[in-house]
Structure formats: C-alpha cells, structure tokens
Amino acid sequence: MENNITINIDENMLNIYFSIHNKYKNIAPLINVNLFKLFYTLTDDFYEKYQIYNDTNNTKFSSVILLKHFFKDIGISQKYIHIELLTTNKNNNNSNNITFDINTIHTTQNIDNNNIININNNVELIHIKNGKCICNILNENTIQIHIQMCMNNNELPKYLINIIKNIINKIINRIIYFMQNL
Q1: CB 103 within 8 A of CB 128
Q2: How far apart are CA 34 and CA 27, in angstroms?
C-alpha cells in the first residue's frame, strides 16, 4: 500500500495527514500513548536525548526532546520540545476516534527538578499550542491520522519549510512502515 502523506505548513499551522494499514494484524488497540513512545524509538537519529516522565496509565505523559542541531551551520539555535500529551477521547461505542492533546510545557522546572535533560540557555523551546493528534479508526486494520499543531509563526524561517517537511515525511514513513509490518 502506498504511503500517502500530506504535510501542510501555512503561517503558524502544521497539518499532517496519513493512513496506516496492516492487512494481517488488528492495529486499532495499538493507538494509545505507546504510539508516541514508539515514535522515539523509530526516530533516534533526529534527537540527541529524550525523556518521558509523569507517565499515567497510558493516558498521559510529559516528555522533553532535545533535537539534533540540524541548522547549526546557518546560525539557527538548537531546539527542544517539552510537551504534555493527554488522551482526551478514547475509543468507545459512540466513537471510532481517539484524540490526543499535545501542549507545550513552558517551564524547565520539571526538567531541572527531575534531572531529566540538561537544557542550557543556548537551546530554544519550540512552542506548540493546541496540538492534536486525531486517530480515526476506520476498521481494525486501518487508521487515518491527522496531526495539527499551532506554532509560533516566528519559529521557522520560510526557506526551511521544505527541509522540515522532508524530515517529518521521513519520520511518518518510518512509523507507517513499522505498523504495516507488525
């Protein structure tokens, strides 16, 4: 099955659409917080360090990710992501959607207090507002995913958008490939 991934970055809104299909395995039960933990395992060449903390019953966790310094040569500072991910809508009899809210944690207090990752003053936080990952379970073998994030429109220079799209495309393709080949 061909991977149809659509990535749009307009002004300060990032939208990603893709589907995952595995004709041999029921993948619907895998759509939970562990899907995001899988993301870290499959994309370790895009970050230097990550840490998950405040993990609560597979419905909520906090995470900090120190990204690789991709654009050091052109003077853009290294970035990190500090988020809370919360399952806000679980699959039930009335809905085939599972929604995850993704929001930036704007303090390093938890990072510092828990000795998680050393974030120095030269590293900048990527601000994500009202992030959502909506997983529409079409059947036990097919899931459509829409990731939407509102970001500060000063975060990315326009000339980097295609590079960012290529990085995101690689990451999504790895997740799709893994899920299709379970």
Answers
A1: yes
A2: 12
Q: What is the rounded CA–CA span in Å between residue 66 and residue 114?
A: 16
Q: Is the pTM of this model over 0.85?
A: no
Spans in the chain with pLDDT lower than 50: 1
- Which residues partner with 95 through β-bridges? 92
Helix (H) / strand (E) element for 102: namely: strand 97-104
Q: Which amino acid is at 164?
A: I
The model's pLDDT over 102-152, given as tens digits with 9 standing for 90+, comes to 998 887 665 655 555 667 778 888 888 889 999 999 999 999 999 999 876
Cβ neighbours of residue 159 closer than 8 Å, sequence gap 6 or more: none
Helix (H, G, I), strand (E, B) or coil at 98: strand
Structure-block tokens of residue 140:
């036990």
3-state secondary structure of 107: coil
